[in-house]
Structure formats: structure tokens, C-alpha cells
Amino acid sequence: MTLWGGRFGEGMSDVTSRFTGDTSDRRLLEVDIKGSLAHVAMLGATGIISEDEAMALSDGLGSILAAVSEFEFAETDEDVHTAVERRLGELVGDVAGKLHTGRSRNDQVALDMRLFLRETGDARAVQLGDLIALLVELAEGNAETPIPTYTHLQRAQITTLGHHLLAHAWALHRDVLRFWDCATRLDLSPLGAGASAGSSLPLDPSLVAERLGFRGVMPNSLDAVGSRDFVSEYVFCCAQAMTDLSRLAEDLVLWASSEFGWLTLGDGVSTGSSALPQKRNPDIAELVRGRAATVIGDATAILTLQKALPLAYNRDLQEDKRIVFHADDTLAGATEAMVALLSGVGFHPPVPGSETTALDLAEALVGRGVPFREAHEVVGRLVKVLEVDGRSLGGATADDLAAVDERFEPDDLDRLDPVKSLGMRVTPGSGGPQSVRDQAAALREALGL
Q: What fold characterizes domain 354-430?
């Protein structure tokens, strides 16, 4: 069944039917029915169709919606819109032909996509919120667990594991905010735009918008049916979230290695090797890292799809659904898997070496009025002297400090203890235990946890 054909003398060839047909949009079935129910209510309210016709169409659509999980598509259904109208005809007869009054598939599918992404965006925000809540819980439990930070993958400063985990949590929180913000631009109804330039029928698009919970109607019909920037934005939200998940995954891969030895993967969230009996592999993290690349590809694809399209609608836009569905599905699966992975991890990082306190020692001199560049050079000389003797910074004595620079004081040795050094952090957002607890509380408040 097609929704057109009077202009043609014969039907499509099998090749054309196979190539132009779209089964990917079947997951829009529920929102398509909801959109049609709102459209029918408007047609009845404006007198474009009679009250009896509106009631018959609404009853039929309601029956389809009630049994949506059991809906059977026919091979001849060109798309989800065709399928709904076909099934409606089976239920209510010829009056089903009035369903499409004042509407085109162009504005219909634009509406469906907005309805669908509004729902999935909420779902992704909730999922990411669950992951953030878990990271917050883990961070609070490790607010005093010392670890080194890394710059250039070289040990830098002392911090806590809780601080590191919250860095990922804050990045994911911004992803939640992006989905919420994206929803504000999804919140306009395109229905009423028709194929491209509206209708001569006395439609009332605002009634449809109100019934479907939109805050308004798109002000330009060409823009309503020909634009997919809202899809691009949604896919970007998915791509950025996957990128942030990938960075978290990469840390977990490193930490699970024997070289780091910071964590142990639970049996339920790790895999083995077909050849190496000793292996415990972080496959979830590795796959999240790999699948991030495919969603980044989706972001490129959705932009490229639109870059040279003349207004208004072109069939190229049929492909937007495959792209956004893949991006959304991948993010949903990856977020679920990362929650499972982190729930099955045991953390046990070793206490960092004293080299992570070098900056703290330099700041002791800065606090006495020494210019930072000079203090930096002094501590560098101390490190060099100790290295020649085969000692670490933590092995320095008061005499070593005095020999390098008389402005050092004996109490400065306390700064070479990573745990004591950590307790000296005073800047907001730093890795000190109290800062970690404050950040965790702020995230809980921001997400209503």
C-alpha cells in the first residue's frame, strides 16, 4: 500500500519498492499514532471532518495504540505512516482515508521525530544520571584514597580517587544538561506545514501542539519540514556523551592493567581469553571506547546528509532515522554497560610516590615570598641531587633541603608525604577530601539525587 498513486499508470517496480521502502521507521509507530490522534482531534474541532468521523478515527487509532506491541506490519507497507493508515482502514473502513486530511508525510515524519527524540532524550538523561549517581557514591567512598594525577601520562600531582571519579561525573552532568537543553529546541510542532507551504484548509496547528505538549508551532513551513538541525543536535549530544564515556572507559582499561593494578574487575563484567588462561579482560570498557567512534561517525553523517539539500523536503532525509537511532541505541547500551561495569569493580590503587608532591614543596617557598620560577628551579635541583644518590623526593632529609636552599624549613618535609600534602589543598574543586565531599553534594543537588 502507498499513500499516492493516482498520477501513475502502473505500480512501482520491485527494485524501486525495495530501495525506497523504509522499515527503520517502524519504531516510530507509537508516536506516529499519538500524532495522528492529535491531528484527528484538531480536524474534528475545526469542522474539517465531522464529529462522527473524528470519533471513528480516534476509536480506531486508540485500538491500534492499545495493542501497539502486537502490531503486525505488512510487506507492502511503504513506511510506518502507510502501515497505520492501512490498519486503520481494516478497523473503521473508508473513513480512514480522511486521516491524512491537511497533512503530508513531510510534516508528519518531522513531528514523529520530535516526539520520539523528546522521549528518548529524557530517557538518556535519566540513564546518565544513574551513572553519575554511581560515580558520586564511589567518589564519596574514596574521598581520602590518594592517587596521582597524570599530565602527558606522567605522574603530576597528588589527588584522590574520588576527585578523579568526580571529574568524569561532572563531564557526564554536562551531557545531561545538553539533552535537557536540546529538548527546548525539540519543543515546537511542525504539523500544519503540509508538504512544504501549508494548506488552504482551516487547520489549527496550535491545537495539535497543545494536545501533544509542545510549547508552540514552528513559524515557517519550509523550515518545519526541511530542517533536521534538531536531529543533528541530538546526535551530537549522543556523540559527546559517548566521547565522555570513552574517556572513562579508557581510564578503567588502564587501571585494570597489571602495570597500574588500581582495580579488579568482577567476574560478571569481565571476559577471558581463548588462548591465555590467566587473562581477565575489560571488554565492556574497550567496546564503549570503540563504539564511541561509530557515534562520532553518526554526527558527521547527519551533518553531511543536510549540507547541500535545497528546501524543503528531500528523500535524503529518510536516512536521518537510521543515523539517530543508531546513535541513541549505542549510547543507551553503553551507559547501561558502564553502570554494570562500575558496579562490579574493586578499587585498590597503591599510595602514590613522593614525586607527586614536588609542586607542594615549591609552593612552600612561594608562601615565603620566593618567585614561583625560582622556587620551581630550586625544587628541580633538589630532585636532581636526590636522583644522583638513587633516592626519591620522599627520601629527602632536612639537611638535603638546607643544602639546596636555606629558605627551606624542616617542617617542609611534611609536604613530601603524599597523604599529608593532600590535606593541605585549599582551592575549591581540588582533590582534597573535603572538596570531594562538597562536589559530590553539589552533584546530588543538581540531579536531585
A: Ribonucleotide Reductase Protein R1; domain 1 (1.10.40)
The long-range contacts involving 277-284, CB below 8 angstroms and separated by at least 24 positions, are 280/256, 282/249, 282/252, 282/253, 282/256, 282/341, 284/249, 284/337, 284/338, 284/340, 284/341
Q: How far is CA 266 from CA 155, 169, 269, 280, 286, in A?
A: 27, 22, 5, 9, 16
Q: Which three cell numbers stand for residue 55?
A: 470519533
Give which of 175, 314, 321 is closest to 237, Cα–Cα: 175
* pLDDT tens digits along 98-124: 999 999 999 999 999 999 999 999 999
Q: Give the chain's mean pLDDT.
A: 94
Domain ranges of the chain: 14-101, 112-185+220-347, 354-430
Pick the CATH number of 14-101 from 3.90.550.10, 1.10.3090.10, 3.40.228.10, 1.10.275.10: 1.10.275.10
- CA–CA gap between residue 389 and residue 17 (Å, rounded): 80
List the end-to-end C-alpha distance of the chain, in Å, as a whole number: 50
Predicted TM-score of the model (pTM): 0.92
Task: Verify cis geometry, omega within 30 degrees of 0, for the bond prior to 54.
Answer: no
Q: 10 Å Cβ neighbour count for 16?
A: 10
Residue 3 has pLDDT above 60, yes or no: no
What is the fold of 112-185+220-347?
Fumarase C; Chain A, domain 2 (1.20.200)
| Per-residue pLDDT tens digits for 204-256 | 999 999 999 999 999 999 999 999 999 999 999 999 999 999 999 999 999 99
Catalytically annotated residues: 152, 273
Q: CB neighbours of 135 closer than 8 A, spacing ≥ 6?
A: 165, 166, 168, 169, 172, 342
Q: Tell me the HSE value of 270 on the side-chain side, using a 13 A CA sphere.
A: 20
Three-state secondary structure readout of 102-163? CCCHHHHHHHHHHHHHHHHHHHHHHHHHHHHHHHHHHHHHCCCCEEEEEECCEEEEEEEHHH
Residue 179 reports pLDDT greater than 90: yes
